[in-house]
Design a protein that fits this description.
Distance between the termini: 44 Å
Number of helices: 12
CATH superfamily of the largest domain: Vaccinia Virus protein VP39
Order of helices and strands: EEHHEEEHHHEHEHEEHEHEHEEHHEE
Number of strands: 15
Helix content: 25-40%
CATH topology of the largest domain: Rossmann fold
CATH class of the largest domain: Alpha Beta
Bound molecules: zinc ion
């Protein structure tokens, strides 16, 4: 019995009109070497399990989605995300090494979306689908929002619960009346992204918003004509956007918008709230007097710090593959 599922139609729009653009066995080079190099530090794949499977890239003629035709079955996906990617190795490899801007990026999204709703945070319900270790939800929680998350990996659910996040299951999503659903680096991994998006939409209230943020496949044409398996992750020719086994869907702006439309959702632009920076102001004369009179110096400094908004022109472009969709 094969450990793979064959996708017979475009998983983003359902169209059966697509073309094969690349194919190679998972257990032969160059795909095999890529899998070794990529997964060995994280755990390692079982090549016997992959025997007989092909890494086959297709492009949809309707929505421009690039997708892998042969994907692991449910059991294989579980092996991939729970064993081949070893949670214990991952937490020490990545989770404890993130730089400050990883966390400020999360805070910025939480601030952006909370500000959009213009309601008391305590009345808002945010859900992170594929929450990972719950890091994004913790930033929303810090703003006073009620936070819910779902995640396949039991290890990660346990970790998130320890941090005060309410974990829910797939079946609990419909009718949940969420104001906002976050999906960050999730949709590129999903076997049935359109069906999943419809399911998520059933958990949104009317006027609720879902975010889909995925690796940007708008440049895929040039990258895919080269298929440079040696290109390092983060470089312009990197095949990370179509990484075997994991990045089974590669989206352009158009393919995301079309998929959302199929799910009954409209593309919406949500502006970034002007970012705030805290700037140390020179101590005023009155502050100097106060600090010399009774306040310890460090407290006096905090009192006289000023907050000013940054230039509004720093707003991000609404293009790309970090998009928001609203339920009409
Ligand atoms: Zn399509």
């Amino acid at each position: 019995m094969s450990n793979f599922v064959i996708r017979e139609s475009c998983p983003g729009c359902g169209n059966v009109n697509f073309e094969e653009i690349y194919s190679g066995s998972f257990t032969d080079n160059p795909v095999k070497k890529y899998l070794h190099d990529f997964y060995d530090p994280q755990g390692g794949v079982d090549f016997e399990y992959l025997a007989g499977g092909n890494y086959t890239l297709c492009e949809c003629n309707n929505c421009s989605l690039i997708f892998q035709k042969e994907i692991l079955n449910d059991e294989g996906m579980k092996l991939l995300y729970e064993k081949w990617i070893d949670p214990e190795k991952i937490i020490s490899l990545f989770e404890q090494t993130y730089p400050l801007n990883y966390y400020t990026g999360y805070l910025s999204v939480s601030f952006q979306i909370t500000n959009f709703f213009n309601q008391k945070p305590a009345s808002l319900r945010f859900f992170d689908f594929g929450m990972g270790w719950g890091n994004w939800l913790l930033t929303a929680k810090a703003l006073g929002v009620n936070v819910f998350g779902a995640e396949l990996s039991e290890e990660r659910v346990k970790y998130a619960k320890k941090n005060g996040i309410t974990a829910i299951t797939w079946d609990e999503i419909p009718g949940s009346n969420f104001d906002y659903i976050n999906t960050d680096q999730v949709f590129e991994h999903l076997p049935q992204p359109l069906e999943t998006l419809k399911h998520l939409a059933s958990g949104l209230r009317k006027g609720g918003v879902v975010r889909i943020c995925v690796p940007d496949g708008n440049v895929n044409k040039a990258v895919l004509s080269k298929m440079d398996w040696e290109a390092a992750k983060g470089t312009s020719d990197s095949l990370n956007i179509v990484a075997p086994l994991e990045h089974i869907n590669c989206y352009t702006t158009q393919s995301l918008v079309k998929m959302a439309k199929e799910a009954g959702l409209n593309w919406v632009y949500i502006p970034h709230y002007p970012k705030l920076v805290i700037e140390e102001a020179p101590l005023s004369i009155s502050a100097k007097i106060k600090s010399s009179l009774q306040l310890p110096k460090d407290i006096a400094r905090k009192v006289y710090r000023t907050i000013r908004p940054l230039d509004i022109s720093t707003i991000e472009s609404p293009q790309g593959t970090n998009l928001f969709f609203i339920k009409p």
